[in-house]
From TrEMBL:
SUPFAM superfamilies: PK beta-barrel domain-like (SSF50800). Residues 41-176 form the MOSC domain. PROSITE patterns: MOSC. Gene3D superfamilies: PK beta-barrel domain-like (2.40.33.20). It comes from the Bacteria. This is MOSC domain-containing protein.
């Protein structure tokens, strides 16, 4: 998005940020995830995103094979819907999805193939949404039985960072060049 382009703004909330130095879902899901490395805190209140590299400290940071998928973004509403569909009484652990950024307030799955920015107050960070972040069988273990199938089509999007910046938990603005279907933009 160039500075001169008209953009549509959506009020969102960044409800979870995850940085994981290791891939914890290895082997068979029935064996459970690997433990968090000693001293590592995966859930963060703030993350640093670097253009073309990803999130500083994350397992996919700077890996050429993951350049177009370095940052995963998901909608909290997708998890709410799956929780209700499966009849789970407790809220899901947002970190269990292994998505880097969880937003509330927009259809994240509509961002596949779209340039978008997120601004949580420190300036916009530009991304290019690429392919869907399809759920895996681990979701049946870490969220609830049936979650893998229930999350199909709403697992989020794999994104490439096109600028450098900082994102923090809390209110934010998501900007896109064109309106996303079914979502009301901010009114000026």
């Amino acid at each position: 998005m160039s500075a001169g382009e008209l953009v549509v703004e959506y009020p969102v909330e960044i409800v979870h940020l995850l940085v994981s130095s290791v891939h914890r879902y290895e082997g068979r899901p029935a064996d459970g995830p690997l433990p968090v490395p000693p001293g590592e805190i995966e859930s963060r209140s703030e993350v640093e995103v670097r253009e073309g590299l990803g999130i500083v400290g994350d397992r996919y940071f700077g890996r050429p094979a993951h350049k177009r998928a370095a940052v995963t973004v998901m909608a909290a509403e997708s998890l709410d819907a799956v929780q209700a569909l499966l009849g789970v009484a407790h809220p899901f652990d947002l970190g269990a999805t292994r998505r880097n950024i969880t937003l509330r307030g927009v259809d994240v799955d509509a961002l596949a193939g779209v340039e978008f920015s997120l601004d949580s107050g420190s300036g916009p960070v530009l991304f290019r949404g690429h392919r869907p972040a399809n759920p895996c069988a681990w979701m049946n273990v870490t969220l609830a039985p049936g979650a893998h199938k229930a999350l199909r089509g709403r697992g989020g999007v794999r994104s490439e960072p096109l600028s450098t910046g900082v994102l923090s938990l809390g209110p934010a603005v998501l900007r896109v060049a064109d309106a996303l279907g079914g979502v009301e933009p901010l009114r000026s």
